[in-house]
């Protein structure tokens, strides 16, 4: 199975900050990398697919980049509603494994 | 609009089986794969398996769940079912169905809590 590792596991930031979350695969997944946002008690919500494509309705302050084994999710200016947990997922090969999640908290 | 509606919470004893439903609406049921993902309390997301609701309903399972997990579908009601047997305490989790829109999970069910307790 492809292992996905996110860093950091948790992050404290303020409204208006720019933050970056990293996701690393233990083998190349080309650009088959998705990002999801999850709020407490809710299902995950697709933010970015295929590394850098914004899902419909997702604000443009979210962006993704990378290829091969290293990927990043950036939020350019944090809004209050962005405080949540973020998960990366590889869709290169079944089983479609996820990172362990990054919890973004208000400072 | 696309909706995936799952059945309600379940409380099961160790060794029992659980069957969760995921009813789809708002799109052509047979043209999108359906995945199942679970999340243990305070943990990350774990992919379990996928079914193609069209054709012969072929399913693929994570090796961890081989022999315990069965995905089926009923095209007359646009419903996918997840059956997990020989339940253990560490199967306590929220179980999600998610539509496979290409190589991404673009719509998710609301989740079903399965609690395994004696």
Question: What is the distance, rounded to the nearest whole angstrom, between the alpha carbons of the first and last residues of chain A?
Answer: 36 Å
Number of E strands of chain B: 11
Uncertain runs of chain A are none
Shape of chain B: globular
Query: What's the end-to-end separation of chain B, in Å?
Result: 40 Å
What is the helix tally of chain A? Answer: 0
**Hey, which two chains have the biggest interface?**
A-B, 23 and 21 residues
Mean pLDDT of chain B: 97
Using only CA atoms, what is the Rg of chain A?
Answer: 13 Å
Structural category of chain B is mainly beta
- Beta strand % of chain B: over 45%
Helix content of chain B: under 10%
Largest beta-sheet characterization of chain A:
6 strands, mixed
- Structural classification of chain A: mainly beta
Envelope shape of chain A: globular
Question: Using only CA atoms, what is the Rg of chain B?
Answer: 13 Å
Q: Main beta sheet of chain B, described?
A: 7 strands, mixed
Question: TL;DR?
Answer:
The complex is a heterodimer of chains A (107) and B (118). Chain A is 0% helix and 48% strand. By secondary structure, chain A is an all-beta fold.
Task: Please tell me about this protein's structure.
The complex is a heterodimer of chains A (107) and B (118). Chain A is an all-beta fold and 107 residues long. Chain A is 0% helix and 48% strand. Chain A has strands spanning 4-7, 10-13, 19-25, 33-38, 45-49, 53-54, 62-67, 70-75, 85-90, 102-106. In chain A, a hairpin with a 3-residue loop joins strand 5 (45-49) and strand 6. By secondary structure, chain B is mainly beta. Chain B has strands at 3-6, 10-12, 18-25, 33-39, 45-51, 59-61, 69-74, 79-84, 93-101, 104-108, 112-116. In chain B, a hairpin with a 5-residue loop joins strand 4 (33-39) and strand 5. The chains are: A mainly beta (107), B mainly beta (118). The interface between A and B is medium-sized, with 23 and 21 residues.
């Amino acid at each position: 199975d492809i292992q996905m590792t996110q860093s950091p596991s948790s992050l404290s930031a303020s409204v208006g900050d720019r933050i970056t979350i990293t996701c690393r695969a233990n083998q190349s997944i080309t650009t088959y990398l998705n990002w999801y946002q999850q709020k407490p008690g809710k299902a995950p919500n697709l933010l970015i697919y295929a590394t850098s494509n914004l899902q419909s309705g997702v604000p443009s302050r979210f962006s993704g980049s990378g290829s091969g084994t290293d990927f990043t999710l950036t939020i350019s200016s944090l809004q209050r509603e962005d405080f949540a947990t973020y998960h990366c997922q590889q869709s290169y090969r079944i089983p479609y494994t996820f990172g362990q999640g990054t919890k973004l908290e208000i400072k | 609009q696309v909706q995936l509606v799952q059945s309600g919470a379940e409380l099961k004893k160790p060794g029992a089986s659980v069957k969760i439903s995921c009813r789809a609406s708002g799109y052509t049921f047979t043209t999108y794969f359906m995945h199942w993902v679970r999340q243990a309390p305070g943990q990350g997301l774990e992919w379990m398996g996928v079914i193609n609701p069209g054709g012969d309903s072929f399913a693929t399972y994570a090796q961890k769940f081989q022999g315990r997990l069965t995905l089926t579908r009923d095209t007359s009601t646009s419903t996918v079912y997840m059956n997990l047997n020989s339940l253990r305490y560490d199967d306590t989790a929220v179980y999600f169905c998610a539509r496979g829109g290409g190589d991404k999970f673009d719509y998710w069910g609301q989740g079903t809590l399965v609690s395994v307790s004696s």
